[in-house]
Write a structure and sequence with these properties.
Strand order of the largest sheet: 1-2-4-3
Strand content: 15-25%
CATH architecture: 3-Layer(aba) Sandwich
Largest sheet: 4 strands, antiparallel
Distance between the termini: 23 Å
Order of helices and strands: HHEHEHEHHE
Structural class: alpha+beta
CATH class: Alpha Beta
Helix content: 25-40%
Number of domains: 1
């Protein structure tokens, strides 16, 4: 990289500035922006380059709301809760259970999705409980209906949308987290 400062690199700026958004406008995100975010996920590092991760983009309101209700139930939230915070798009990241680094690989995809969302001017947040959802027979059936073969574990939901709030400030970084030998 020569003498280039990390602070002058766009990816590093996104890493420092991106925050989880927990309040969204109902406006749908244009498909071009969703595709841009999804493409970033395809370029995440993966164990031995196996690319064992798949992503399902949910833009259908009915399916999004169904996922939200199941997610809230798994979390023990009241039925009226929306764990997706009103975001109109849910990207479900799943990884091949039979690949030894599947959880790590899926986590890297999630990171890329959130950074790309920030670069595209979108809010995002990692929402858990995809693992529990995709252990349910109806979601295994959904994968079959989509023509997806194999055994997949839910890694996370990357919710996307236009923030309906100010970008939260970064929490101070904790000290004593880096050590040299």
């Amino acid at each position: 990289m020569g003498n280039v400062s990390m602070n002058s690199m766009p990816a590093f700026a996104a890493m420092k500035e991106r925050r989880s958004i927990r309040k969204y406008k109902s406006d749908m995100v244009p498909k071009e922006l969703i595709d841009q975010v999804l493409e970033a996920g395809l370029y995440a590092a993966s164990g031995r380059g196996q690319q064992c991760v798949i992503t399902i983009a949910v833009t259908d309101r009915k399916m999004r709301d169904k996922l939200s209700k199941i997610n809230a139930k798994i979390a023990g939230m009241p039925e009226s809760s929306d764990p997706f915070y009103g975001a109109p798009v849910v990207l479900i990241v799943l990884a091949d259970k039979n690949w030894p680094t599947h959880v790590y690989d899926g986590s890297l995809v999630m990171g890329n999705l959130m950074l790309a969302a920030y670069e595209a001017g979108l809010g995002s947040c990692w929402i858990h409980r995809a693992k529990e959802e995709f252990e349910m027979p109806e979601y295994q059936e959904l994968l079959k209906e989509l023509g997806i073969e194999g055994e997949y574990e839910g890694i996370g939901h990357c919710i996307l949308g236009y923030a309906d709030c100010e970008l939260p400030a970064a929490a101070p970084r904790k000290e004593n987290r880096i050590y040299y030998i």
